Amino acid sequence: MKTYGTIQEVFQALVDGKCDAAVADNEVSAFFVANNPDKVKITGPQLTNEVDGIAVCKKNEYLLPKINAALKALRDEGAIDKMRNKWLAAK
Asked: Are 78 and 43 contained in the same domain?
């Protein structure tokens, strides 16, 4: 097993044959595979169903509702889907 500093280094090592497999977030992997279908593929089942989050200190009662409100607004206006499509969709 080998670790790398960035996910880009991981995928480059995979393409260059310096490693046999890589483990990465599902959406990031799907993006890379969609842009390199002749070089790599996703195999096997998804290992986890983790959801990304934002950590907030429990003592900061001001910040949590602000973050939640901003996330709700971004979801409601479709901005999160737009960003996902822009940055994680195959190009």
From this structure: no
Two tokens, residue 29: 């992997």
Say yes or no: 14 and 31 in one domain: yes
- pLDDT digits 0-9 by tens, 47-57: 888 777 888 99
What angle, rounded to 10 degrees, do the helices at 79-88 and 26-35 form? 50
User: What residue numbers bound the domain in which 45 lies?
Assistant: 1-50
**DSSP element (H, E) containing 65:** helix 63-76
**What pLDDT, on a 0 to 100 scale, did the predictor assign at position 89?**
66
Q: Are residues 59 and 22 in the same domain?
A: no
Torsion of CA 63, 88, 79, 6, to 10 degrees: 20
Per-residue pLDDT tens for 11-54? 999 999 999 999 888 888 988 898 899 999 999 888 888 777 88
Whether 43 and 65 share a structural domain: no
User: How many residues are present in the chain?
Assistant: 91
